[in-house]
Write a sequence for this structure.
């Protein structure tokens, strides 16, 4: 009996130890990045253009480029993603087609990001003649995060109780009116949370934008959706591997700004979810 | 009459709306189909003009110097890094999943889960950058190599990257095990740990396997980190302490230098197609495992 409990204790501590190693590494990475990157951050760093062959100045064009890409990605992915989840949860019957749709969603989310880049290059940049542009880049990123948005929206739609649907239909509303006026408002916080987190992911992607939008150096700010832009993730890659002797603090500063941008979306998503939950409890 | 017209309009409207929603619904099939079609279309030139046998068994990838497109070095590079990464990630991933999902007190679990989730949000280029500044010099010093850009460095960072996938899906599988099984085991006199490893983990095993497959899919498809830290040398080496080059890194590194529509350009779409098929199969298999566990419970 004693031996049995000793074994249990051993495994308990061993797995706790393994877990702590992982946690320490995750926190270590973030703290290390903050410690190394924080000294580089200044108002000038985030508002000025690169200088001296990217060995000086700031990273404003890259930040702006990434923001443009985020906006484009939201415009292209959010409506389609929400309607797709509405179809799956409200309209589709349980048949073969629905199964194939679900399987496709899983598989699209498993397609490597560099393959999205290839597709964006072949389809948007060359065939549709968008060129390397904000338009081509946002469309590519939008396809990449579509599965995240569909899955998150569907989860949110599932939490709306069936009695709401029945009540609305019983009052004489059509299916569409029910969806738009009853179901969507209820599911909105969940949809927004999932989408915001997905968009944060898109903001940090590099491989899909290398061939579709990202410019090595483009200090001039974009003037249309057909402009090339610099983007934070690609800029970090360029600084770290393509520019010999790029100052360390600029590299770490860029990495930190990118991480903060992505974390901002994650935290914003979580806050929206928590607030929505609290509101529901108060009801 | 007026009323009749109105309802006719309403029927038309309902019809159009349901068609519109349907078109959005099948978007993921369209996307998947388009990606496959484009990879095939753009790689046709390569597969029709370059001997397939030379591609699949060629041992040299030297596209610009003498137009040699041997796939073996890239495949070996990808597999080598993936194997190393899985070897590191599986014990850690499953260990953490079991601890968080089964053994940890509630408060500890609620604290640890968000930390693991944060790891999933760190962009791969940032992890690659940190790997370049920390893991690469570390590997270089500890094995006293001339350069630290090796397969091992890549494996370490990729293991780290696949952890969130492996942990969260394994943990889902573990928490999906019905409490009745746990209670039955405890009632028979087994303690918590015996219940965990003799009842819970075997029941969740197909979900855990799916988690490993999905982690593997992520590792093979990962681009930026391997591009930055594995040295990018397309030679066949069977050592973790040498630079290698993966399929993904080759596409990302070379696409910028190719002539649009040329043989090299087409060849990169060709290896993209192979990559797509590999990850497709991995995910498809994983999905089967996930469905199996749903059916059991």
């Amino acid at each position: 009996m004693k031996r049995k409990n000793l074994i249990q204790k051993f495994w308990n501590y061993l797995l706790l130890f393994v877990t702590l190693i992982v946690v320490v590494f995750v926190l270590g990475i973030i703290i290390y990045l903050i410690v190394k990157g924080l000294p580089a951050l200044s108002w000038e760093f985030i508002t000025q253009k690169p200088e001296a062959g990217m060995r000086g100045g700031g990273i404003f064009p890259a930040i702006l480029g990434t923001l443009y890409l985020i906006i484009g990605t939201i415009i292209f992915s959010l409506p389609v993603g929400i309607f797709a989840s509405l179809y799956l949860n409200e309209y589709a019957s349980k048949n073969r087609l629905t199964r194939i749709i679900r399987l496709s969603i899983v598989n699209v989310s498993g397609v490597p990001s560099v393959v999205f880049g290839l597709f964006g290059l072949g389809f948007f940049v060359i065939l549709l003649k968008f060129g390397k542009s904000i338009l081509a880049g946002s469309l590519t990123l939008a396809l990449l995060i579509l599965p995240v948005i569909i899955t998150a929206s569907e989860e949110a739609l599932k939490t709306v109780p069936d009695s709401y649907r029945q009540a609305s239909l019983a009052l004489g509303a059509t299916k569409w009116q029910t969806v738009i006026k009853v179901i969507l408002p209820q599911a909105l916080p969940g949809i927004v949370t999932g989408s915001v987190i997905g968009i944060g992911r898109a903001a940090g992607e590099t491989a899909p934008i290398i061939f579709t939008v990202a410019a090595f150096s483009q200090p001039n700010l974009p003037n249309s959706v057909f402009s090339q832009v610099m983007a934070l993730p690609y800029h970090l890659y360029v600084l770290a591997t393509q520019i010999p002797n790029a100052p360390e603090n600029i590299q770490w500063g860029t990495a930190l700004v990118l991480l903060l941008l992505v974390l901002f979306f994650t935290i914003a998503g979580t806050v929206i979810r928590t607030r929505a939950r609290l509101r529901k409890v108060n009801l | 009459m007026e009323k009749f017209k109105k309802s006719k309009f309403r029927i038309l409207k309902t019809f159009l709306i349901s068609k519109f929603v349907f078109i959005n619904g099948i978007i993921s099939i369209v996307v998947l189909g388009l990606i496959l079609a484009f990879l095939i279309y753009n790689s046709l030139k390569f597969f029709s003009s370059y001997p397939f046998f030379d591609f699949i068994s060629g041992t040299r990838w030297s596209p610009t110097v003498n137009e040699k497109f041997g796939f073996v070095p890239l495949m070996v590079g990808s597999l080598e890094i993936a194997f190393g990464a899985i070897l590191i990630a599986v014990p850690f991933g499953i260990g953490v999943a079991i601890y968080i999902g089964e053994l940890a007190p509630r408060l500890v679990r609620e604290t640890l889960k968000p930390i693991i989730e944060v790891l999933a949000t760190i962009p791969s280029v940032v992890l690659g950058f940190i790997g370049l500044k920390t893991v690469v010099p570390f590997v270089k010093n500890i094995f006293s190599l001339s350069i630290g850009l090796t397969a091992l460095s890549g494996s370490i960072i990729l293991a780290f990257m696949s952890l969130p996938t492996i942990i969260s899906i394994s943990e889902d599988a573990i928490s999906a095990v019905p409490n009745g099984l746990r209670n039955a085991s405890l009632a028979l006199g087994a303690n918590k740990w015996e219940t965990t490893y003799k009842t819970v983990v075997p029941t969740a095993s197909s979900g855990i396997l799916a988690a490993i497959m999905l982690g593997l899919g992520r590792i093979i498809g990962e681009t930026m980190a391997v591009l930055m830290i594995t040295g990018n040398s397309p030679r066949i080496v069977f050592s973790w302490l040498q630079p290698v080059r993966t399929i993904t890194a080759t596409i990302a590194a070379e696409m910028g230098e190719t002539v649009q529509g040329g043989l090299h350009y087409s060849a990169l779409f060709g290896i993209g197609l192979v990559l797509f098929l590999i990850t497709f199969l991995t995910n498809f298999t994983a999905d089967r495992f996930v469905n199996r566990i749903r059916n059991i419970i």
Observations:
- Residues 263-296 of chain B form the longest helix (34 residues).
- Chain B touches chain A through 82 residues (CB under 8 Å).
- The beta strands of chain B are 61-62, 68-69.
- The first strand of chain B starts at residue 61 and ends at 62.
